[in-house]
Amino acid sequence: MPLVRIDLAKTSTPELRKAISETVYNAMTEIANVPEHDKFQIVTLHDQDQLVYPAAGYLGVSYTPNIIFIQVTWVAGRALDTKKAFYRKIADDLHAKTGVRKEDVFIVLSDNAREDWSFGNGEMQYAPK
Amino acid sequence: MPLVRIDLAKTSTPELRKAISETVYNAMTEIANVPEHDKFQIVTLHDQDQLVYPAAGYLGVSYTPNIIFIQVTWVAGRALDTKKAFYRKIADDLHAKTGVRKEDVFIVLSDNAREDWSFGNGEMQYAPK
Amino acid sequence: MPLVRIDLAKTSTPELRKAISETVYNAMTEIANVPEHDKFQIVTLHDQDQLVYPAAGYLGVSYTPNIIFIQVTWVAGRALDTKKAFYRKIADDLHAKTGVRKEDVFIVLSDNAREDWSFGNGEMQYAPK
Questions:
Q1: Which terminus of chain C, N or C, has less C-beta within 10 A?
Q2: Chains contacting A with at least 3 CB pairs below 8 Å?
Q3: pLDDT single digits (tens) A35-62
Q4: B3-9 and B40-46 as β-strands: parallel, antiparallel, unpaired?
Q5: Does the ipTM exceed 0.95?
Q6: What is the pTM of this model?
Q7: C127 lies in a domain?
């Protein structure tokens, strides 16, 4: 049920994009109680001047043109500690698998409701009984 | 007032994209109480590896590279049955008009508030009196 | 902490895109209590038929292919008057700096929570103490 938008540089490799996709999905299923096969993501590639971040950094974090924006829409209800572990796992695993700078992994979450999803077929699959 | 993001394959035809745009708008005005002419949509085209869905399907629904992601941001307040009818109409009408597989029509909704919209001119058109 | 998606025509100039980026950031820091250097934006360019607006206009506002969609995700809590001033400043400043039609500046806001942000490094920087 999460829909994930991943925005990053055109210069990224297909291997990196695949690793991001897998890492985010794994973090969801292992930590955030997302069901198996619930993997829906939209990747968009950008020229360098289309990914804007503060040159001076923010909150002690510094960024490069390899910044990766990960925007998640999912059903409300995850606990604060779950969200913390989710951020941690994505940054750590991505770094371990691909060498990506952890500072370049930017994540933002938005909540909606169970009734706000149609997984195809014109149905509201999560409708209350 | 809805803003609709439509993400689909680069290989889609302009005719299909136009049909999606019209179908979503019609479902909004006919079912979801959206005013006439309130039609704001952003279409983004993607290479095949940029639209990610589960190869094994999800909840009994199977997907193809022709998957269509429709992400709606609109003002809170639609009833559950309205949302159900909205999903149904979009999938049914799109299939009838274009032959698109209903399973490939993925829809997600996000709510905001009336004050969260400026339809141009620097104004908050939906401001409370 | 805001993440801003800016969608506009491929035919826009890099100078205009830079002006939009700066104008939105300045309006945030000057009016909406956004901290300095909190500047994260994703720009996506579109062919003309990918930016959809009502040909007849809406609520007395008319649009052209130069329409600029500005979608902001930020932490809940801004007052109604702050949002009003925010819309006003962006449209006025953009028009003054670049000649853009104010009617073509479309802005939509979405709220989330402080815990919904990781500004890199796998951390929840806004976590409660």
A1: C
A2: B, C
A3: 999 999 999 999 999 999 999 999 999 9
A4: parallel
A5: yes
A6: 0.98
A7: no
